[in-house]
Design goal:
Blueprint lengths: L23 H11 L4 H21 L3 H33 L2 H25 L8 H29 L4 H15 L2
Helix pairs in contact: 2-3, 2-5, 2-6, 3-4, 3-6, 4-5
């Protein structure tokens, strides 16, 4: 009497699929975080992050927190300006017309002005005359700069067909190097 062989776990194919964990939106957000951001998305995320720091600075009365926030703001802006000036702006100069060049020239002047205030803030401590005022004015400079980039320059860059994914990868890599 012939019996049919039993399937054992060693002979049955194993599924390579893993059970899904987390909600669909959590999985989607996690997958999106692993994809490289385009240059504009990365720069806008930086803008949003530093804006939150400025708001936190304005809200706190704790001198230690103010000092820490001022330091974080200055460091974030130094890195952000450097990656824009080294990578994004040169690519934008190549891609944009004369009107775009004017925007880039203005952005560079705004960076130069911000760097002066950053250096002054870094040389100061909370409680010194004008410390809070300088951080506030720096925030106003940056808000103006961000507004122009996000409403004028970035749309022109996107329309010019720049390789924003490739630039985003370069910006992220350089930012990681500078943030060490």
């Amino acid at each position: 009497m012939a019996t049919s062989p039993k399937k054992t776990s060693s002979t049955s194919p194993k599924s390579k699929a893993r059970p899904k964990t987390g909600s669909r939106s959590t999985r989607r957000d996690s997958a999106a975080a692993k994809r490289p951001k385009d240059a504009i998305a990365l720069l806008k995320a930086d803008h949003k992050e530093v804006n939150a720091m400025f708001k936190a600075f304005e809200k706190t009365d704790d001198d230690s927190k103010k000092q820490d926030l001022a330091s974080q703001i200055c460091n974030a802006l130094i890195v952000h300006a450097q990656i824009e000036e080294e990578i994004f702006y040169p690519a934008a100069y190549d891609a944009l017309d004369d009107d775009g060049d004017d925007l880039l020239d203005e952005a560079q002047v705004e960076h130069d002005s911000a760097k002066v205030l950053i250096a002054e803030i870094q040389a100061m401590s909370v409680g010194e005359p004008l410390f809070d005022a300088k951080v506030k004015v720096l925030g106003e400079y940056i808000a103006h700069h961000v507004e122009e980039e996000e409403t004028e320059m970035f749309p022109e860059c996107r329309d010019a067909g720049m390789d924003l994914k490739g630039l985003g990868e370069q910006l992220a890599a350089r930012k990681a190097e500078l943030s060490v």
